[in-house]
Structures are given as C-alpha cells and as structure tokens.
C-alpha cells in the first residue's frame, strides 16, 4: 500500500528531526564542552547540517505533498499536525536563498564584530555593519508581510510568536506602561525601609552545583533524560528526550546561578514532558517562544522567587552553603525581589524587566516598519530609558543600545516574547491559585504537584496542538490578560 | 573555471568528513555524557547519519569522477590522496546494500543478546544468533575476496590493515609462538622471587583524575584540542581537531585508570598531530588500526611501563595519592610488568597478550575460510588456551570464547591489529634508541622530546601518505620485524 501524502510528510519531518537532534547535541557540546581548537571544524559541520535541513525543507516536491495531504481525510490531530508542518515549510520556503544567505553573512559579521565594538563603546563602528542587517531584515519583513498580510514587524515577530499582533501588543504593553513606572517607585520606597542582608561568599562551586542539583530534583527534573552542565551563557538545549541545561557559577555569589537553574529547569520540564510520541513532528514541540518562557518564568518568577518556595529550599541552602543570617527564608525573599532600575536587561529584576522589553519593542518595530533609521536609535534609547526607568544612557552605548545580541544578527521581533512569557506565567498561576487557594502553604510544605499537574495537563501535553490563543483560552478560560501580571506584581512588591 | 574531477572529489570527501564529525561527537556524547532515556533518539539520529554517509559514498556519479580524476595530471600527494579516497569508496560500494543491512541487523541482534548470554555462560543461546553472523561475514569475505584476489579472511582483515597478508601474519605470529611460551615461563619464575607491594586504596576519584590530567600534560596532550572524560569502556574518540579520550575510575585501584590514560593519550596525540590541512581527506587520517594501536602502545608499553617513565611520574603519584611504600619507582615498575597467564584478554599483561591475539587470529581465520564451523570454537579455544597459556577454559564460555565483543557483530579480522601495533611500537622504539642511546636517562629526566619528535616526523605527519609497509620501511629502515618485539620483551622481563 502506498503511504498517504500525510504519511510521507511524517517521514520527511521525522528525518528532519533526526538532523535537528544532531544540531542540538553538537550545539550544546560547542557551548558546554568543546575546547577552543575544535571550533572551526564544528562550525563547518554545523553549517553542512544547516544546509541539509534547509534542503530537506525546500525540496520542491514537498509543495505537492502538502497540497495532497490537505485534501486527505485527516482527523483533528492530524490536521493540527499538518498545520504545524506547513508553518515550518512556509517559513523555510518564503524567502529566496540569496536573501537568507546575505542575511546570515551580514548577521554573523555584525554579531562577531559587535563583541569587540560593545566593549569599546563603538556605536559608529557597529552602525556601519548594522545598517546592512537592518536593510536585509526589512527586505525579509516585506516578503513575509506580502505573504501573510501582516505588517512587516508583525511578520518577523510571528516567526517566534505565531498569531500575535501588534494591536494586541500595543493593548497589553500600553496597559503596562500606565501602571509600571509608579509601581516601581512605590516598591522602591517600600524596600528602602527593609534592609537586606547580603550573603557572604565565597561559595565553593561544587557546593553550588550540589545545591542546584537538589533544587532541580525538587522541581521534578528527570535526570534520566537530561543533565546540568556549565556554559558562559546559561541555556536549555538538547532535545526533548535528552534535555541539557547549563548554568554559570561565580564563587562570590550563589543566588544568580541557583535561580538560573530554577529558570532553565522550567524550560527543561516543558521539553521533557512534551508528548514523546509526537515530539518528532512540529505539532509535538513547544508552542512558541513566549510559551516556552512562560514555563521558565512560572518556575523562576511565580514559584522560585515566592516566599513559600524560598522557605521550602532554605534548609537546602544552609545544608550546602553553611549557616548565615542572610539565609533566612525572609531575607532570601528580599534578595530575590530587590528592585533597582538599571542599565542591563539580563540583570534586571522582575519589576523593571518589562520596561526593558517595551523599550526594545517600540524601537525595533519603528525600525522595521521604516519609521526610524538605525542612527536614531541611541537618542530614542536614552529618551525611553529616562522615561521608563529614570536611567541616563547618553553616550553609554555599551550599557545602552549595544547591550543585546538580538539585533546584531537580525533577530528582530523576539523581545516581546520575554514579557508575554511573564504574563502567561502570571495568568497560569492565577488559574492554579483559584483551584488551590492554599497554594502557598502547599509550596512551603513541598507539595508542588498542583503546579506541575496543571502545567502538564494544560501546557506541556498539548504542545502545539492548538494555536497559542486557543491554548491560553483552554488553559485559563480567558485570553491573554495583563491584569494577572499586574496583580501578581502588586501583591509581591506592595503586598 | 570548472573544478577538476579531483577537486570535485575533495568537495565530496570534505562533506563526508563534516558528517563524520557529527557522528564522532554524538557518539562520544552517547558513551560519556548521555542519560539513558536519550538513547533511542540518539540511535535513530546516528542511523540517519549513517545512511547519509553511505549515500554520499555510493552516489553512482562518483565512479565516473574517480575514473576521471585517475587520468588527471596529479602530483604525488594528490595521487596518494586519490588512492585513499578510492579505497574508502570501494569499501562502501563493493557490497550490495542488502548484505550490509542483513549483516548489521544480525550483528546488532547477536551483539545485544550476547551481553546477557555471556553473563549466563550461555554458549548455545549465543550460537543460535552467531551462525547467521558467521554466514553473512563469510558472504562478505567472499565478495571482497573476489574483488581483491585476497583470501576471504585477508579481505576482511584488510578493512582494518590494508596491505597485510596472512602469509606475513603466519611468519610473524609463527615466530612469536616459537619463543613466547618459554619466555612467559622464565618471566614468571624470575618474578616469583621478586615480591610486589600492592597499593592500598581507596584512591579518591578526583585525585586520580588530577593525576591523570598531569600525566596527559607531561605526554603532550593538547588540551586546547581535546578533553578527558569518563565512560564505561575507555576509548579515544572525537575528531582530529577535538580529541575526546575517556577512562574509568574505581576507588580501590588507580593503576589501571592511570595507565589507560597513558594509552589513550597515545591514540590522541596521533590524532591531534595529523596534518590539519589534510585531515578532512582520507589521506590525512590515521594509516590503519595497527598503526593507531602502535601509538597507544608506544605510549603505554614502550614508554609508560618503563622504569624510567615510572621514575619520572612517581613524584606525581605521591603528590596526588599520598605516600606509600608501593609508590617507589621500582615497585611501580613491578606492578606494571607483572606476568600472570589468565582468562581475559583485556586484562592481560604485556607478555601474555600476544597469545590471546594469536589464538583469536587462528580461530577466526579458520572460521571465515570455512575450515571450521562455529560449534567447534569452544573446543579449539580450550585447546589453544591450554597450549599457549596453560589456562583451562573448558565449559567456562563467559571467560573463554564469549569474552570479546568483536565477533558478535562480525568484526572478524580486527584482532591481529593489537599485536601488530605492539610490534610496530617496539620497532619504532628500537629505532629511536639507536639514535638516542641515552633514551632512558632522558625519559627519567623528563626529556620526552626525542620520542615525540620522532613519532611526529615519521608517523603522525605522514598520516596515510604511504601504504603501511612503506611507512614502516621509511620510518625504521626495514619492514615489520618481530625481533624488536622479542628483544624488548626479553630485555624488560628477563633483563
Ligand atoms: Zn528563558
Ligand atoms: Zn588502543
């Protein structure tokens, strides 16, 4: 019997998943294990693999197979699977190879030189490369926009957040901008009367690692299907069947590596609990970047920095790092909720973080839609930083508009995912709390099952079965609602 | 300008090398890093990669390109390169895909069930699977033999040792059989009067690892292009640009892991010093299995177990593992040269090891050439073990003919490489010693440059430029001569 068109697609995408497995594992190795002289050969091998994956997705025969599958008699699950295959296929086929290649080249040149330019505060040097990245990204956005009917910026953002619109982002971020600056001020005023005891290092790396492993265990990380290692930039990599998370240790501070592990464990549990029987197909994989981030932020922000969780793990901290006044549950909670408007997004606290994201969203959207040019960025950056956070970045490019890697290789449209993830997480926890009014007591007592069960049922198992909006609606009974995020922040920072 | 046929082949083989890079790295990861639930996805990804490499090598267009390159005006280096490409291409194309597949299937079944059968001493159970592996291996040998004009067994052996003949093996192993049994007896008699002090554990794994790393440094391992990790079966993996060696630690004995590291470092330095500008082509890679083993055994047997080297590293042993009477240089030398005929090849000492290899060579050759059938193996095994080593294996299959993995998946013809490697190593050191009569003093003083320089010039840099026989002739001024091996053993064990 001939395989159906849908079955043929399953074979094609399964094969691609095998190649992605290889890319994920050697990518992890490159960041976590590889000695420096291996880099050129690794780069060449990864590039060869990219070509192979791209060829598999741009095989001209696929168009007919997808068309044929669309008129086959598919059940609802298969239809969802086909929809996700088609999305991936379109994404690979919409752009001419010449544009993809030009953008990759311009992006890696700009990205590579940015490392030095940032250190040297060299905005002009950066601008010389960056103009070309912007030009090509606009071209990409234009082509994607023509196909989808979305605005150019929306079309780029939809690579990461399928279904999200600028209208919705404006509604949500507009809401946040109404109340966030004042909330930051109130929180700072409140905290100025509540001194924090700083933890006294050094903290041996081995002890930090042992503590991290225990926290991962508590959070349900499956060590038979994953590992914890070290890399310069912490990330969650590998594949669903074998998730590799990393952290970075410094002897003088354990708080960042510990909470970083909590964050990556959230990403990891999503991956580890995707439906194993579907994980080789697009429909069986993570819904979107924001949904992925909603899992890490459920773990880090909703659970990890809560007083209840910090009370739960406080004995572990003492057991591994010794006894200190700083390790009381209430002081740990203060450490992990300290608010301080500052330059750097990745070091920002929970409360000021959305301001960093909204600023970037507004600038990158204007840039892609052609409302501003690259040389206008620094002034705009400074103006918005002053307005949202009261931080002056004039002339300080390295800690201002040169701080992120995202724009350097043309990854425009990614930033909103961070704050969308934080909002989804708040909305999920509002739902969980409505079902378990005693959630904090349960957490403090070590009963994390209400959280894990809910996430498993409503987020991990569905994977990409539904579009994001439907996933959120089914899980929480309403569409994305920033009121939950506000309520969470007010409760934590003013409550 | 059109690329020449030779240039086209360079592109094809470079691409294959990129894929082999991926296979090597995820293969290392599978043995050294991967958690158990990752195994199925890893197996599937590796199988997909195998198919891809096989397809690349069996592309029908390659035949014409190779033919065209053969009539191009190539310099001597390019001719050697073409010769090695052709060898790899022929190896991949000589066998029908159906046979390759059948042998892979039968081999993995037999190999997989062997793990349990060996533990259960279940020869009959093993035989049921093994007959099919033998049948298919004979078929493979027949086809390779028809093409090459070699005998069936020679044709299989030539996969690992191109150019080696049974006539030469018979000459060499025949020679060894003349003097080895008596030498073993004499050594044992001599050693019975020389008590050894056993080292007293436990030895902390971290200390063993630190010691191993220092020994690797002393041996010139390039840590910018490689790593040391842990796996159940120690090996040297990765790629020339990034060599991954492994060892296995037990707390009650450090001697095996330490000398295992010395052994794998020998393999690693060969890989790390292959010509970087040619390593993407077959001609730039290791000459043969025996030549590879000659490097690990140069490090382990010629250098590593010598009294001079043990005197050199003795302070490191004490520094990392504490002071013990057992750690005197002379006692370490006794530990590392103790002779004891026993069941297991991989645990055998330097002196009895060749007997294990010759026994296997004689049996596997008769089996492939059809002179014996699989069910005759145990009797033959027992008879030869008694004759060569005085060890009775009757009924003891698990420590007899079921001990090795090689036959279970049809890797017939590999065993001779081990002892050929030991002989090449002895011959290399005889040459080095003739140029540096004070070699032992130099070693004891930490001057290992004479050894590394010689190996680099004569073995590492030439890679596969010449056939093995020519490589040995150029390096040592004579063809493979087992007299050097005998002299080395007599000097070490009776001297
Ligand atoms: Zn994250
Ligand atoms: Zn070896």
Automatic annotation (TrEMBL), chains A, B:
<keyword id="KW-0479">Metal-binding</keyword>
<protein>
    <recommendedName>
        <fullName>Metal-dependent carboxypeptidase</fullName>
        <ecNumber>3.4.17.19</ecNumber>
    </recommendedName>
</protein>
<comment type="similarity">
    <text>Belongs to the peptidase M32 family.</text>
</comment>
<dbReference type="Pfam" id="PF02074">
    <property type="entry name" value="Peptidase_M32"/>
</dbReference>
<keyword id="KW-0121">Carboxypeptidase</keyword>
<dbReference type="GO" id="GO:0004180">
    <property type="term" value="F:carboxypeptidase activity"/>
</dbReference>
<dbReference type="InterPro" id="IPR001333">
    <property type="entry name" value="Peptidase_M32_Taq"/>
</dbReference>
<keyword id="KW-0645">Protease</keyword>
<comment type="function">
    <text>Broad specificity carboxypetidase that releases amino acids sequentially from the C-terminus, including neutral, aromatic, polar and basic residues.</text>
</comment>
<keyword id="KW-0378">Hydrolase</keyword>
<keyword id="KW-0482">Metalloprotease</keyword>
């Amino acid at each position: 019997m001939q395989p159906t068109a849908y079955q043929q697609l399953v074979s094609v995408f399964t094969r691609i998943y095998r190649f992605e497995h290889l890319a994920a594992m050697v990518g992890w190795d490159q960041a976590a294990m590889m000695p420096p002289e291996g880099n050129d050969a690794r780069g060449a091998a990864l590039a060869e693999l990219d070509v192979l994956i791209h060829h598999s997705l741009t095989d001209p025969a696929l168009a007919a197979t997808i068309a044929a599958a669309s008129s086959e008699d598919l059940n609802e699950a298969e239809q969802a699977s086909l929809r996700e295959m088609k999305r991936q296929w379109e994404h690979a086929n919409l752009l001419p190879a010449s544009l993809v290649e030009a953008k990759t080249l311009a992006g890696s040149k700009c990205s590579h030189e940015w490392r030095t330019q940032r250190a040297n505060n060299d905005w002009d040097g950066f601008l010389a490369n960056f103009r070309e990245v912007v030009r090509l990204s606009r071209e990409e956005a234009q082509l994607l926009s023509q196909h989808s009917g979305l605005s150019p910026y929306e079309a780029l953002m939809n690579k990461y957040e399928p279904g999200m619109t600028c209208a919705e982002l404006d509604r949500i971020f507009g809401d946040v901008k109404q109340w966030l600056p004042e909330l930051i001020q109130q929180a700072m005023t409140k905290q100025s009367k509540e001194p924090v005891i700083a933890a006294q290092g050094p903290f041996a790396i081995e002890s930090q690692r042992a503590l991290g492993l225990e926290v991962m265990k508590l959070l349900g990380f499956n060590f038979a299907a994953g590992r914890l290692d070290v890399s310069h930039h912490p990330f969650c990599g590998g594949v669903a069947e074998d998730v590799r998370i990393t952290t970075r240790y410094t002897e003088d501070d354990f708080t960042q590596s510990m909470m970083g592990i909590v964050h990556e464990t959230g990403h990891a549990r999503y991956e580890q609990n995707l439906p194993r029987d579907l994980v080789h197909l697009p429909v069986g994989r993570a819904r979107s970047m924001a949904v992925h981030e909603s899992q890490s932020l459920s773990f880090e922000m909703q659970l990890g920095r809560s007083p209840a969780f910090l009370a739960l793990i406080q004995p572990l901290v003492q057991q591994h790092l010794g006894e200190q006044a700083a390790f009381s549950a209430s002081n740990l909670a203060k450490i992990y909720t300290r608010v301080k408007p500052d330059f750097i997004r990745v070091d920002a606290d929970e409360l000021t973080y959305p301001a960093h994201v909204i600023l970037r969203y507004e600038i990158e959207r204007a840039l892609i839609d052609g409302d501003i040019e690259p040389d206008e960025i620094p002034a705009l950056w400074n103006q918005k930083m002053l307005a949202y956070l009261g931080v002056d970045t004039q002339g300080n490019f390295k800690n201002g508009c040169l701080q992120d890697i995202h724009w350097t290789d043309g990854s425009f449209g990614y930033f909103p995912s961070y704050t969308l993830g934080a909002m989804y997480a708040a909305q999920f926890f509002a739902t969980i709390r409505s079902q378990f009014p005693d959630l904090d007591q349960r957490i403090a007592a070590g009963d994390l099952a209400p959280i894990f069960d809910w996430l498993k049922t409503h987020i991990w198992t569905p994977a990409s079965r539904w579009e994001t909006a439907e996933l959120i609606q089914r899980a929480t009974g309403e569409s994305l609602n920033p009121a939950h995020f506000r309520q969470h922040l007010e409760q934590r920072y003013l409550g």
